[in-house]
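The data layer described in this paper is built around a simple, fixed record for each protein. Such a record has a labelled line for the sequence and another for the backbone structure tokens. For reference, a complete record is included directly beneath this paragraph.
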Amino acid sequence: MTHSSECTPVRAFDLLQQSAIEQRAEAILAASLYMSPSCWLVERDLAQMKWFDYRFLSPVQATLHYVDEYQRVFRLKWRRHFDSTDAGKKRGIATGGLFHSRKEFSEFWNARVHADSMGVRYDVYISTAMETALRRAKQKRLLRAGQMRRADCIQAIEKRWEEELAGSRWLSELPHYRGENHCALPAQFAHQEHVAHGVRKRSNGALALGMAIDELRVLPVETAEAVHGAEFVARARERSMGIGRPAPVELLEPEQLIPSCFGLPAPFDVAAEPCNKCPLADQCRKASEHVLADVVEHYGSADPTLHHRRELGRERVRRHREKKRLTEAAASDPVAGAIAKAA
């Protein structure tokens, strides 16, 4: 039998393709138009909190995935509760998608951030919130992305997620967490800890533990023994022997293992956890500095949101002064004032 501690890492991260880094940087740059440095700092924290399926998606990729899940659930709920004939035509988001406007972008981005802060799957977050609202108000509209943070929705989501963790979806099935792809990334270690402690919530914890070690290959023996003891782990592995099929071996390219917090245009301390334990820390720092320079070059500021607000403020002042000038001109010379307004 093999387990994750016996497997060797994939190719070294120093062989990352530059095109993959540039592609992620371009997506971050596009989103930066609507962001502030504090928002990117939040994303660094969320990288350690979000559900494990999303820890290798950039914040932009994760938000686009959230939009897809929202639209899928929106149509499903519309079909079930309102009208099945036109459910397929429902979008739930503006025609232009996530980047249609600042309002649309902010609403979906912030909704995804809240789901990540709760550490839940997006489909569970969206579906549970919508069902809770429908039962509460018997309303004829489905919740918008920004309307899911009511207290009753949050309570229902937390309860549903506990049920999920005790059921079939208690760990990530991504190959990123299997032994053959272990590269000492913080997200991989966090998933191992999650699995090691998560078996306690399961009705047959010993069986789940043994399968996590040998069939699923997401938990090293030594990590399991540190939590449960060598004797219990030995019994668990024996009990799970021959049950289920081993997960397929899928060797991922290094580019597929770039964590969600990589290259964000926000400062971080390479010597602090979890960055000090990440093999990509130095490359991440360089990528972050490069993206931040691009943000300043493209938008004229390291804080495009603040820059946008200042531009709007200057425009409001300009219009106010112009209106005042025209009013004064009309008061002193009605004919000249009328001509100025017409011009």
